[in-house]
Amino acid sequence: MIGNLLVGIQNEFNxxxxxxxxxxxxxxxxxxxIPGLSANMAVTLCLPLTYSMDTIPGITxxxxxxxxxxxxxxxxxxxxxxxxxxxxxxxxxxxxxxxxKGEAGRxxxxxxxxxxxxxxxxxxxxxxxxxxxxxxxxxxxPFEYAAVGIFSLTLIxxxxxxxxxxxxxxxxxxxxxATVGAAPIDGAPRxxxxxxxxxxxxxxxxxxxxxxxxxxxxxxxxxxxxxxxxIKPLAFKMKGLGISIKEFFSHWFGILRAALxxxxxxxxxxxxxxxxxxxxxxxAQNSSKxxxxxxxxxxxGLIASESSNNATVGGALIxxxxxxxxxxxxxxxxxxxxxxxxxxxxxxxFKTDGPxxxxxxxxxxxxxxxxxxxxxxxxxxxxxxxxLPKIYLLPVVMIMCIIGAFxxxxxxxxxxxxxxxxxLGYLLKxxxxxxxxxxxGFILGPMVELYLRRASMLNEGDLTPFFTRPIPAVFLLIxxxxxxxxxxxxxxxxxxxxxx
Length: 500
Fold this sequence. Notes:
The chain is an all-alpha fold. Helix content is 73%, strand content 1%. It has one domain (2-499). Strands 1-2 form a two-stranded antiparallel ribbon. The N and C termini lie far apart (66 Å).
């Protein structure tokens, strides 16, 4: 191990690899910060550039793009309330309100530091205990995945806000939107109404851009045109790194918990940062002493989202390197890049190509540090965007939304979807129905359906393994406990309200 580690350090600490890391992280941050673009797209577009490179420099560039892309999403999420990537959805919930309060510097500083620490924790787990963690992931089958999804859906109650009924309605809307398109397993078309464009269903990016970006534009235009309110640039304070190290690490338990959630979800194939950041945010809110403040601009929620989504990077690489199973779309591309270079990922990789594995570890560590430096160097420039009057910023935002929507599948249909979801978001806001449960329902609904159907087919309709296997049984027990506690909490709240 020590020998491979030293070789890995030697491989990465040269001018070529360090330059590739710097360029890769910087480009990844740009892709991550633009709504509609993502780490997946950055890695995909730059993959042809690695064809002529040696294995280690080529993989180093892709790793840097991956980490930078996940990190960059917090910039637009905090400054203009538009998640740059699906992995930054929950960052909007408290990051944008903090910016509106004039604390954009504090929000960015907190988010950047949380991204760094969350990523660092997951990378250290990747280095020291990846084979053991991967063995646990191997025990997950359809029943285990379905139970995790059901448990995650019960966390919707924590995102419902003051009105549980409206929160559940929002979640049902999300689940309903997820049913549009081809059904899992058999591919039967559902709710397509004869439109071939709906065959693939709605993309999470189009929903995300519509709900957060277009809704924001509509509300701002309404305030300017209908209510005759002047659109002033947001004020902001900027001091040092935005947040003191002492204040940040006073939330050490929340950082660690979110990083472990992100790493764990990253290990499970197919879930990724979009699931991790919402679940980590829900857990943080459920365990908080002041859950009612979440969504108004508390750093706890911001830390949970950013620590968890960056932690999925190390988590997703664990099954890819140790088992040859990609943890998400981006690691699937990385796996393809390794295969293209003649490297076979899996249990024997650590023995046959140990220096390459440790070169990847060192590249991740360097890229994480470069991300921290670049984000902090650019932070004051990012915050200055707030000094632009919104009346000039809105057309730019709409152009970004249209470009981002078209870039998803190169279809004009997605642009119309974005506009439609913008109108839906505006109506939901008017009805005071929260967005978070809708997003969670849209992400988790298909997962639960897919694995329930697989479990049913695997066991010929017999679902007793949910209760006889230890992992699904534990998750379902926790889910039941969450539901019972939520009902009790709701009943007590109503009793206090009636008594008052």
